Amino acid sequence: xxxxxxxxxxxxxxxxxxxxxxxGEVLFAEATERYLxxxxxxxxxxxxxxxxxxxxxxxxxxxxxxxxxxxxxxSSAETFTRVYDDVMKVxxxxxxxxxxxKEVQNIVQYVAHSQVRFPELTGQTLKYxxxxxxxxxxxxxxxxxxxHLTHAATACFSSPYDEAVCAVVDGTGExxxxxxxxxxxxxLEEIAGQxxxxxxxxxxxxxxxxxxxGFGALTGEEWKVMGLAPYGKKDPELYDIxxxxxxxxxxxxxxxxxxxxxxxxxxLYERRxxxxxxxxxxxxxxxxxxxxxCEIIEELxxxxxxxxxxxxxxxxxxxxxxxxxNGLLTERTGFKSLHVYSAPADDGNAxxxxxxxxxxxxxxxxxxxxxxxxxxxxKMSDLALESLVKFSGIQNxxxxxxxxxxxxxxxxxxxxxxxxxxxxxxxxxxxxxNRSILADPRRKDMKDNINARVKFREEFxxxxxxxxxxxxxxxxxxxQRSPYMERTLVxxxxxxxxxxxxxxxxxxxxxxxxxxxxxxxxxxxxxxFNALTDVPVLLNTSFNIMGKxxxxxxxxxxxxxxxxxxxxxxxxxxxITK
Length: 578
Hints:
single chain; 578 residues; alpha/beta; Nucleotidyltransferase, domain 5; DHBP synthase; 3 domains; nine-stranded mixed sheet; 20 helices; 21 strands; globular
């Protein structure tokens, strides 16, 4: 009997779904936030009723059974109930319990309380509401997997390696915030004899830093800490406070249980940026927090390398989104090669869960050790595009089949800011040339211009360089190929003045390496821009405004285009200018 596999990421934030066919090929993968246009989709199930019925009709075989694969095991509710109870006990019998600790307590309680219920709610549409499935009569079964195992599956099955070690580091899993695996010949095996049990969490530590900087945690503003860090310096007092919160012991991250942790959080929050204070007042906090994060993860991964299992490292979990650190790992931990997929956080687990279910049913199959495309999401609706041309009344809309990259490159070389929409959306949080806002990196004022006129976000936030892979060595020191914009590298001194809009305060850039076989249209666009300017780099940022997800539809693209300072919009072969 044919089977389609539907992975459902059932974390209360960043839920997502993925669909595989009977051969294990990835047909579709997308975060719930994109369809809903609701940032992070807090407490929103991935199997939205109307949406899931359309996806099954489009991607699943009509006579196939459906296997639902979820990203938390049956015992996860017990884990989060215990977390909830432990956090509640912190304030018991404490007179004048500090307000700063109450804030942390409230956040943890909310997350734990929500997560206890979320897996049970996920999948209910498919299990019970058959009327949404338009006559579908196949059998539907479900499986659940350990949360960190789904992280490891996404990370390793997308890797270019036949063998590697995998580290999963995030806010929390099922009893621990770290897990480690050996990946060999398509199989995952947890590394035995290495205890990671305990309260320590590097992901949670970064949340505390984020809050102390005055940013939001549930709204996913850890990015801002990374962006702000290069503007600050190490603060010795803050460093001592932060180092007292977390330490490494072998492959375990430990948190003090003698009251030091609570005292450290209180001390940290006493230095918290006031809501009306300038953002740069948090620069030293961000810098010091990023420094401690780097020290902890480097010590942890060095200990992993010392086991002598492999020189290839695969990294998964939310902490793998710390691109500033990813670029340093191979020179500081002993590993020779690093792989981080485009969706290493909880949205990506939908893919891992579906793959675990497929390989469980097909144990003789092995994932192909090659580049895995991130372009797995939705396409723009042809009907919406046709309706736009027919009914919008827009005069300056033209179609340029086979020539659109040349038209766009010419506009970019003139200093225009372009919304660029092509093919299928990227899976993961970063725009990789299919749902991007693009600009000329040679213009010094371009960063401030886009932040102020288009993204409406803080002035310190940097933008990424998309670079033709063959020019990587020319522009970056110790160049590492970065297909998913997953690592930050140092620009060579001699090229920084050529592309100031994508050079961050500390001389680095979170790059995306572009090869033609990975993304033909984007490669051709950058190549044409290079032919016009002798610069093989474009400024690339996600097609959204601050606080909103990356656009999902033609209607979303048009709304952002006409309510921001974008100069032109490209959707497939169509060009609209103002």
